[in-house]
């Protein structure tokens, strides 16, 4: 099996080392693991691509490349340049430092990398590690992902739904903020919504007198609705959420058509 891995925390991120190990386990001794990851951190870039300017790509080692672009850029670079059209069998994106549950999904470069792979017709899984008080004193805060990542990916490959539709399925996996031994298992969970967490801005005045704005986030440990991703993560479960890039509100189509006809 040929696996392409990427992330949004950058080529030197510790979560990428965890993902490398997971990918090597899945690929097996006869397989290949190729890395194309951002040269610098790209957290929060979502599914953006560098459409208006070129990006530099550099080979750092055997099957290891850094690109000055987003995770979606890296997937495109991997498929069409690094692999020279020799398509991967699987794209893994992560392991992100921090959760990509609930509304974080919409901003996540980790999700963006997996989404681009799905749009290119390649099976894809995004993996993220929820952080919290129980992960702070571990030898690695990625312990849950390290201990259970291979099993999760292998289970999805063996038993998951993999369709060939235009907006094909990909998967968003979030490991709970607990030690590896305390993970309860996997649960399929819908994307939740934190009703009390919003992004905002905080202004600061520089020594030169100019105003700069920092983007600010909100609390990450307030549970979402029962059974949705954040809620099951905080209860010690790995959440598995099937996703598509299709943003159509299908549940509203019939009523809107009736109102506008």
From TrEMBL:
Segment forming the signal sequence: none
SUPFAM superfamilies listed in its UniProt record: SurE-like
Keyword Glycoprotein appears in the UniProt entry: no
Keywords, comma-separated and alphabetical: Cytoplasm, Hydrolase, Metal-binding, Nucleotide-binding
Main location: cytoplasm
Cofactor(s) the record lists: a divalent metal cation
Pfam families, sorted: SurE (PF01975)
Compartments reported by the entry: Cytoplasm
EC id: 3.1.3.5
Cofactor info, note text: Binds 1 divalent metal cation per subunit.
Binding residues for a divalent metal cation: 8-9, 43, 96
Catalytic activity, reaction form: a ribonucleoside 5'-phosphate + H2O = a ribonucleoside + phosphate
Sequence ranges assigned to domain Survival protein SurE-like phosphatase/nucleotidase in this UniProt record: 3-194
GO molecular function: 3'-nucleotidase activity
Superkingdom, taxonomy of origin: Bacteria
Broadest EC class assigned to this enzyme: hydrolase
Summary of the function given for this chain in its UniProt record: Nucleotidase that shows phosphatase activity on nucleoside 5'-monophosphates.
Similarity comment: Belongs to the SurE nucleotidase family.
The protein, known as: 5'-nucleotidase SurE
Organism: Albidovulum litorale
């Amino acid at each position: 099996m040929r696996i392409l891995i990427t992330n949004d925390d950058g080529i030197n991120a510790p979560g990428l080392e965890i993902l490398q190990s997971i990918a090597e386990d899945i690929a097996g001794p006869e397989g290949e693991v190729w890395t194309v990851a951002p040269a610098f951190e790209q957290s929060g870039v979502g599914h953006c691509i560098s459409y208006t300017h070129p990006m530099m790509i550099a080979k750092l080692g055997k099957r290891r490349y850094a690109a000055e672009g987003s995770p979606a850029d890296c997937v495109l670079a991997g498929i069409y340049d690094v692999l020279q059209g020799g398509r991967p069998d699987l794209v893994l994106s992560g392991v992100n430092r921090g959760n990509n549950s609930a509304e974080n999904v919409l901003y996540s470069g980790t999700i963006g990398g997996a989404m681009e792979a799905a749009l290119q017709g390649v099976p894809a899984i995004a993996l993220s590690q929820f952080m919290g008080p129980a992960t702070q004193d571990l030898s690695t805060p990625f312990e849950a992902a390290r201990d259970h990542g291979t099993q999760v990916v292998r289970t999805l490959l063996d038993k998951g739904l993999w369709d060939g539709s235009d907006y094909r399925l990909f998967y968003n996996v979030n490991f709970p903020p607990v030690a590896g031994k305390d993970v309860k298992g996997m649960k399929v969970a819908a994307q939740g919504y934190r009703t009390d967490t919003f992004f905002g801005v905080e202004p600061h005045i520089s020594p030169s007198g100019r105003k700069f704005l920092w983007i600010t986030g909100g609390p990450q440990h307030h549970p979402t609705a029962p059974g949705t991703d954040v809620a099951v993560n905080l209860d010690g479960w790995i959440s598995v959420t099937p996703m598509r890039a299709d943003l159509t509100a299908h549940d509203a189509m019939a009523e809107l058509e009736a109102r506008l006809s």
